[in-house]
Amino acid sequence: MEAPVADDRLLHQRVVGGEEAALGEVYDRFAPLVFGLAVRITRDRAVSEDITQEVFVAFWERPLAFDPARGTLRAWLATIAHRRAVDHVRAQERRKASVLGPRLLEPEPERLEDTVLSRQEADGVRLAVGKLPDHLREVIELAYYRGRTYRQVADELGLPEGTAKSRIRLGLRRLADALAEEST
Amino acid sequence: MNDDPTPRLYLDALEETAETPRTSLRPLLLTAARARRRPAAAVSGWTAPYAGRIAAMDALLGQVGEDDWHKETVEGWTLQELLAHLAAKDGLVALAVGAPVLGPPVTVDEALARTAELQEHERRRAPGQTRRDWRTQADALCRHLAALPPDTPASVGGFPMPAVDHILARALETWLHTADAAGAVGVTLPQPVPEHITPTADLCARLMPLTMRVSGHTVAEGRAVRLVLTGPGGGRWHVPLHRHGKAVREGDVNAGAGAGGAPADATITCDVAEFCFLVGGRGEADTFAAEVEGDSGLARDLLRAAPALSGP
């Protein structure tokens, strides 16, 4: 779940103030997400390690490029990781293409948006939600698209709060699996 | 922020399947980071508020473009000249405590004259050199001070104070000018961490008897103001305003009522960072956002006198 924005602000203040330990904390909190995201896109663990390192070094080196008033640190780091991973995949494809000879039609390069998901990918996520089994889709839709808390989801469905919570997590895992399958 | 919950859903889903990279990546990352941006010279101890502001200014300078160095900031100075001004005043503190001083030998221990001297010197150099030497001097000053007790007496520009107060004054000025520079290049500057704001605000509170005196107010013995500085790093101070008055921090603002100490003639409640900036000469006393209870004349005198020691 999303880290509270107040934590982001304090971590950011500490990193701007040159406190190395704060970078370590940012890494510990977000490296699994960043690395997992890079692996998912590049399918290459060595490349994903390089991308992970670049993402956190970039945050340390230019911490004022992040503005906590404009979004979460998690989304910001994931956006950079996404961009670098996609760049890597495209460079690979170009290399392959040049080995195979010139292409007749160069596909229109997708504009790199300032978001963790392109419009197309966001559509893919929504589609994957629609394909979840009913009992999982229901809780994900309530929790995300209708802004309900765990407690409210539980109340509306007449479930114990713990059950609602574990269903949401199961839904998230299924969703991640579906998205991973789709991208291969 | 985007209202579409899909990106948040996507990230939450990814976190459920996140993968931990091998543990040896962490130390490699920290080494690589250190090589690209120097960490603060101190993160604890009495020089930390200053070291933190130096690191923040350096982070800003690390991302400005070539053209930004020639942008006007304050006092009609370019960013490079502003940095030379900071280096000049840091250098006078360095001189007072026997730390290495940047640039040509100091001919006169006076802030504006030394600023002009160093700006003249730095204008002939590349901005990158000005930046490197300013940072080197600041870090050397931190290292030098770390070996001294904080109450080491030092006279800077004929103004005697303990070394810790000189360095807190440098922290405040670096903070103010980093905000000036950030404004000039269109970057949002986050605040210092609360642990660095508190000692800076404490210095500001302790300067009040002096700012009253140099502003021509003669305050009778026993007259005092309670300063309630709100926001992260804030607190409550009891500030006796007669010429030898010593402000004392009474505790955290959030400690609740009943934490009040000695009686005061007026209570001024305002944001801690805004109060520091007022003392640093930013903002107008007459339109300053403060809540006043009790003797409003005394409170107004204090707020108007607050910037009395601020220079460029």
TrEMBL record, chain A:
GO annotation terms (biological process): DNA-templated transcription initiation
Keywords on record: DNA-binding, Sigma factor, Transcription, Transcription regulation
All residue ranges annotated as the RNA polymerase sigma-70 region domain in the record: 27-95, 129-175
Gene3D superfamilies attached to this UniProt entry: 1.10.1740.10, Winged helix-like DNA-binding domain superfamily/Winged helix DNA-binding domain
CDD domains named among the record's database cross-references: Sigma70_r4
Pfam families: Sigma70_r2, Sigma70_r4
Residue ranges that the Swiss-Prot or TrEMBL entry lists as coiled coil: none
Keyword field contains Transcription regulation: yes
A GO molecular function held by the record: sigma factor activity
Top-rank taxon: Bacteria
Family, per entry: Belongs to the sigma-70 factor family. ECF subfamily.
Name of the protein in question: RNA polymerase sigma factor
The species this protein was found in: Planobispora rosea
TrEMBL record, chain B:
Signal peptide positions (record): none
Name listed for the protein in its UniProt record: Mycothiol-dependent maleylpyruvate isomerase metal-binding domain-containing protein
GO molecular function, one term: metal ion binding
Domain Mycothiol-dependent maleylpyruvate isomerase metal-binding: 55-182
NCBIfam families hit by this protein: maleylpyruvate isomerase family mycothiol-dependent enzyme
